[in-house]
């Protein structure tokens, strides 16, 4: 085997090991599942099964590296108290809609169709308790609006 081929074999092997390590690290962060319901001002109910992010590791990873998500799925980021929140789409591979939610469960703002991989800072409009991420286009498809309510135990327990 020529030295060039040996070098290439080593580089390819190292690349595969690195990819495997990254995949393993991603798999280490587990998310509990829960149901949420978005209730619109006109009384329509939309149910989603979500993964709930509460730990620093879960909040940091979010939906990174996911290629797809079921239409009725999402992720609920619980910051445990109202505070200013900024998000981004780094390492996120699919477009997402973000619902910014106050401590009482009221939707106070949106970011629709956030661009995959973008490092643009997406800031919530004021103090919020949580962010619900759904597939891009869900807000428009369901006709969601500010003032809608998200029903989940974290909002019932809000101080």
From TrEMBL:
- Which positions carry the signal peptide feature in this UniProt record? 1-25
Q: Which PROSITE patterns match?
A: TAT
Top-rank taxon of the source lineage equals Bacteria
User: What InterPro entries is this protein classified in?
Assistant: DUF192, Saro_0823-like_sf, TAT_signal
- Which UniProt keywords are listed? Signal
PANTHER family linked? UPF0127 PROTEIN MJ1496
Full protein name:
DUF192 domain-containing protein
Organism, scientific name = Magnetospirillum aberrantis SpK
């Amino acid at each position: 085997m020529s030295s060039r081929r040996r070098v290439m074999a080593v580089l390819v092997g190292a690349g595969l090991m690195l990819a495997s390590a990254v995949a393993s690290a991603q798999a280490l962060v587990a998310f509990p599942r829960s149901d949420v319901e978005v209730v619109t001002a006109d009384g329509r109910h939309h149910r989603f099964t979500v993964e709930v992010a509460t730990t620093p590791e879960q909040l940091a990873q979010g939906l990174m590296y996911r290629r797809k998500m079921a239409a009725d799925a999402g992720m609920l980021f619980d910051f445990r108290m109202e505070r200013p929140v900024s998000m981004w789409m780094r390492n996120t591979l699919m477009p997402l809609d973000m619902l910014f939610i106050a401590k009482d469960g009221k939707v106070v703002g949106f970011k629709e169709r956030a661009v995959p991989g973008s490092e643009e800072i997406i800031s919530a409009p004021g103090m919020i308790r949580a962010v619900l991420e759904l597939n891009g286009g869900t807000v428009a498809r369901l006709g969601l609006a500010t003032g809608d309510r998200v029903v989940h135990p974290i909002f019932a327990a809000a101080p």
